[in-house]
């Protein structure tokens, strides 16, 4: 069985993320969307809320499992019997960052492979941080995030 992990903070999950999940799910028997705790970020939604939003927005994809973790990605992947890491790319700047991370993971654990999937061009400009900033200034985020996520952001963000 081919099990892959797609890690991220997903704060919030965007239509770009959903695009990557849908396409990656066709490549593997099981795709684990793993929300991780990033101590360098101040999240809009707590870990449980992000798991809930991901569960709601990916229920149409049958071979996806939503989970969360803290700690090292390579250790988490082995606990899940996964040997593939899936990372989405939007632009060249993403590639440089993700390429360095993939090389570091490979150095730490040679059994893990990283697969990069380019987002569809219609989502290439969307980022979670951009969504939060746009929403905080009262901008329209319709079509950039799933509807349920849009509603939750609207009720959570205080507009500037």
Automatic annotation (TrEMBL):
Substrate binds at residues 9, 41, 73, 87. ATP binds at residues 9-10, 17, 88-90, 98, 123-129. GO terms for biological process: coenzyme A biosynthetic process. Pfam families: CTP_transf_like. It catalyses: (R)-4'-phosphopantetheine + ATP + H(+) = 3'-dephospho-CoA + diphosphate. Pathway: Cofactor biosynthesis; coenzyme A biosynthesis; CoA from (R)-pantothenate: step 4/5. Its EC number is 2.7.7.3. Its cofactor is Mg(2+). InterPro entries: Cyt_trans-like, PPAT, Rossmann-like_a/b/a_fold. It is found in: Cytoplasm. Residues 5-133 form the Cytidyltransferase-like domain. GO terms for cellular component: cytoplasm. The record marks 17 as: Transition state stabilizer. It is an enzyme of class 2 (transferase). One of its GO terms (molecular function) is ATP binding. SUPFAM superfamilies: Nucleotidylyl transferase. Keywords: ATP-binding, Coenzyme A biosynthesis, Cytoplasm, Magnesium, Nucleotide-binding, Nucleotidyltransferase, Transferase. HAMAP family: PPAT_bact. Homohexamer. Belongs to the bacterial CoaD family. Reversibly transfers an adenylyl group from ATP to 4'-phosphopantetheine, yielding dephospho-CoA (dPCoA) and pyrophosphate. NCBIfam families: coaD_prev_kdtB (TIGR01510), cyt_tran_rel (TIGR00125). This is Phosphopantetheine adenylyltransferase. It comes from Pelosinus propionicus DSM 13327. The lineage of its organism: Bacteria, Bacillati, Bacillota, Negativicutes, Selenomonadales.
């Amino acid at each position: 069985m081919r099990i892959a992990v797609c890690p991220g903070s997903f704060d919030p999950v965007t239509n770009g993320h959903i695009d990557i999940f849908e396409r990656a799910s066709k490549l593997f028997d099981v795709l684990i969307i793993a929300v991780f705790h990033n101590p360098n970020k101040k999240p809009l939604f707590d870990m449980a809320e992000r798991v809930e939003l991901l569960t709601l927005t990916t229920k149409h994809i049958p071979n996806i499992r939503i989970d969360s973790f803290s700690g090292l990605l390579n250790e988490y992947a082995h606990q899940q019997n996964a040997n593939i890491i899936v990372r989405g790319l939007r632009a060249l700047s993403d590639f440089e960052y993700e390429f360095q991370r993939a090389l570091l993971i490979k150095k730490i654990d040679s059994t893990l492979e990283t697969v990069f999937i380019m987002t569809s061009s219609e989502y290439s400009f969307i980022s979670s941080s951009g969504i939060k900033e746009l929403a905080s200034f009262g901008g329209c985020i319709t079509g950039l995030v799933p509807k349920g996520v849009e509603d939750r952001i609207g009720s959570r963000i205080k507009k500037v």
